[in-house]
Amino acid sequence: MYTEEEKNIITLCSIKEISYKCREILYDGMNSRAPDFEKHKSYLIKTLSCGVYNKVKSEYSDPLYREELFARLHEAGIVCVTVFSNRYPRYLANIPDAPHVLFCKGNKDLLFTRCFAVVGSRRTQPNMLKLCKKITRELSEHFTIVSGIADGADTAAVEGALESGKIISVLANGFDYFYPACNKSLIEKVAEKGLLLSEFPPDESPKSYNFPVRNRIIAGISEGTLIVSAGKKSGAGITANYAAEYDRDVFAFPYSPGVASGEGCNKLIKEGATLVETVDDVFFAFGLESKKNENNVLTETESELYNIIKEYGEAFIPDVAKKLGKQPYELIPVLSSLEIKELIVRLGGNRYSAIK
Amino acid sequence: MLSEITSFALCGLEGVPVEVETDINKGVVSYDLVGLPDTAVKESKERVRSAIKNSALYFPVNKITINLAPADIKKEGSHYDLPLAVSILKASDQLTADTDGIVFLGELALDGALRAVTGILPILISAKAKGFTRFIVPKGNANEASYIEGTEVYALESLREAVDFLSGEKLFKPVEHRNFKVTQSLRSYNYDMSLVRGQKVAKRAMEIAVAGGHNILLAGPPGTGKTMLARCIPTIMPDMTFEEALEVTKIHSISGELSEEGIVSLRPFRTPHHTATTVSLCGGGNVKIHAGEISKAHKGVLFLDELPEYTRRTLESLRQPLEDRVITIARAGGAVTFPAEFMLCASMNPCPCGNYGSSYLTCTCTPAQIHKYRNKISGPLLDRIDLQVEVDGINYEDLTGESKEETSTQVKERVERARAIQRERFKEDNVTVNANMGEKQIKKYCKLSRECEEVLRNAFETFHLSARARARIIKVARTIADLSWSEEITPEHILEAASYRSYDTSSL
Q1: Would you call A260 an interface residue with chain B, using a CB distance cutoff of 8 Å?
Q2: What ipTM was estimated for this complex?
Q3: pTM for the whole structure
Q4: C-beta atoms of B496 and A332 within 8 A
């Protein structure tokens, strides 16, 4: 199943004391095909201390440790794809700091499909969440969506793509942990219908410094990255930077000035990211076309109300009612109907906003 | 010598006749009270002794044994003072008049004056049903007693008066029977719908809620008038009938919360603070089983402000009474059933910071935080709240504008019309309002056209509604149809009903 050299690097990855950098050095900057402990002994002892070095080395060469490790991975249904494998994703292999091993859970055929990253901040406005969900659903026609699994925009992206099963969620922790806990069921669904990916062994707990590191995989595996929302200092911004660094297209939703969760997006657009309003904006950049299936037939009152909400941007029911000369409650059925047709979204406080 | 006097004990809301038997014999001087008396009853010995002496009567210096029969019911409260005193006077031959068929109730002061007691109304009603028609009660309970027709109630001021009355030395007129007037009730509410500016959507939801007897949740930023809106609910509820008023008064009477008027003519509006315990909300107690807030809100409104702040256990305890509309409290000493047919109105902030959905303040909560906050209210409880509505964050114009608002009376008219339709519909069923419909009635009275089914299915998919929400939406749609005098439920009604379940959905 795994070749000997694959087994070596998987074992090495499972030993937490050995960092990414240590592995690079052990493999002579990934030029050699086997780790050379003796050659780099002095460096390792300097960084790890003598005791740890001995422990690591004995673990690495212990056949029992290996047997146990692979049995555990097999039992958990985890498949590993290493840099030495020809099944390693092409785009990801091109980045300078590509992960050595990808722990996969789910449909790993998705690694060979065209990927597109959709990420955003945890604090995203409800209408943008709806839009994100809608666009990822449409994007999944041509792309496999790559995202994290955090609350907010990532969750919306995952939910949008989950229906088609074309979803890769890259985690910043091992598969033994469910983070964030509120998305436990979603993580399980992704493992079932899509693919969970992580460069960390299953027993790695979530650590704050691993998240930005994880973002390079999201950007690296994808042909382009859409930033749904990003504040001034945001993980989504880091992903966008990686994408630009790897020479991939960056896309962003526009925001009106003064929206905190959109500052990062607007900044990206100013710096040259492609502004995205509909899925066609993304498809155009790749020379793709979407299947037009606008099957929303609106009644007269519905289209009248929809146009007013679009005009307002963000409509407060009593205001709209006043404009139409109606009682607010008379509009409620129409609003509900528009909401069901996914043309508008409820913002809370009896305010609505149009999607698109 | 032996004497027997009738009084009553209360088991929950049920009155049980108690015979006060006194035997005075020669022997070592003693004064014993048997028959499961509680502390207040035991202490009455001393009050009775002083009251008799201070009423210019003679307290016998003999062996006195008093028995309260039946001996297996716990006797609680202070209303046994008067029957005890009369019983002693009779056994010592100071009173020879016939006391058969007269029920004595009242607490004695040391000087022999009669003090008002709690629970007169339920006792009177039970006693009347058991064939007792003549009562002697303290003057302070006269108002309360005056509403029971076909009784002869003498409201007296002291033990001396009671003795004079019984021996025929003085004449007293029985308390005059009063009729229950509901007409004045509306004027005495302190709140009115017209005082709440704007909030059209919330007002509409409240109208639906009251018309169909549904429970309602108001969500909105702090300080936007949720409490004010809730306080208007009783003003648009149909007036209480005499029977309803009596039921409510009974509960308030045993809790000692009756006003001077003697009857509860306005629909109760109870607002227990969120530190309330399960027992205070549902009722209970060690020795005497008290009615809880949910019973005191019987036929009225139970308003739970800041719903997520209540402890989970307290909220969960509401589920069963919300469904059964009664609560049975079982304790070692026995089980008591109190009615608890209340309309639940709850309010909450939309998120921990309170600004979610506000047009001018930014919400700083992540969706997970909002989820966690809303998840403090369990699904099963939320499922029992048919209408979940958002309150507008008010803007300045709403406060100052000269918009004309509907008054409670206008809304109430529509509510009463919708209620009349429901009464007609449920003539043969044992439900009164749409909210109480069971699966059988929904099938029978809420037939959905194919178009409606289609709309409902779409709503389910988009809003991620739970299966239980289906029945609730149909019930609310039925009420909306009733409000618009429509025989059929139309897709519009379904759509409107679906929009009032926003807190059920996981779409954030």
Answers
A1: yes
A2: 0.75
A3: 0.80
A4: yes
